[in-house]
Specification:
Rossmann fold, single chain, alpha/beta, 8 helices
Length: about 240
């Protein structure tokens, strides 16, 4: 299937996987709306993506803020009247309950899990009349590896995994496809490491580029209508999991 002229919304689209995906989809002549909370990053993303296509739109919004999300989807309604694809991607790092404040637990959970549910619900309300539509949730292999010291993040991404699996089976989902992508280590601003270590990880094939995940997203979205890719894990070839 082609994604030319599809209306696509990406959360956390100003950097990392979201930005790489927006860039790739614009190259395929889709219409892309990205939103993020950092206005400076968002403006830079808009400038960079405008070099590829004029069909890029940005909305400053925090996925944890319900009023902000309503503005994002109202923008979709006012400008396009439909939504074809949602890519739930906004995310923050989270550690363990042993060294994380109550406020950080609440905020990262609102970003990494509750924001996904809210965006999916709002997207569903607009997609239900479509002949076909697609929701892609970006999870994490942490949901399967249970890494020590990141139990808050594991809980959140396990929630995304369970949500994706159950939503796909909902009788009301109709012709909306639901796909879950669970990456391993990806070189985004969620990863804290020195530039020296970053280079070494890439040379050793221990970390993915955001573009690797973006290419997988494009592959999923462009399968023929009879094909439904439910769940995919992707990691760097030498990342030990």
């Amino acid at each position: 299937m082609e994604i030319k002229n599809k209306i696509i919304l990406i959360s956390g689209g100003s950097s990392g996987i979201g930005f790489a995906t927006a860039k790739l989809l614009l190259e395929q002549r889709a219409t892309v709306v990205i939103f993020a909370r950092d206005e400076t990053k968002l403006e830079k993303a808009l400038t960079d993506l405008h070099k590829i296509s004029e069909n890029i739109y940005v909305v400053k919004a925090d996925v944890t803020n319900f009023d902000d999300l309503q503005r994002v989807f109202q923008f979709i309604d006012d400008n396009f009247g439909r939504l074809d694809i949602l890519i739930n991607n906004a995310g923050l790092p989270a550690d363990s309950i042993t060294n994380t404040s109550e406020e950080d637990i609440d905020y990262t959970t609102s970003t990494n899990l509750i924001g996904y549910l809210r965006c999916a619900k709002m997207a569903y309300e607009r997609m239900v009349q479509n002949r076909s539509a697609h929701i892609i949730n970006i999870g994490s292999m942490s949901a399967a590896t249970y890494d020590g010291g990141s139990d808050v993040y594991v809980a959140q991404k396990s929630g995304v995994e369970g949500f994706s699996r159950a939503l796909r089976k909902s009788p009301a989902i109709n012709d909306i496809k639901v796909s879950l992508i669970e990456p391993g280590l990806v070189d985004t601003n969620l990863i804290t490491m020195s530039e020296k270590d970053r280079i070494a990880y890439h040379q050793a094939h221990k970390i993915l580029k955001p573009e690797d995940v973006a290419e997988l997203i494009l592959f999923i979205l462009t399968r023929r209508e009879a094909v439904d890719i439910i769940e995919v894990s992707i990691k760097a070839s030498n990342q030990i999991i």
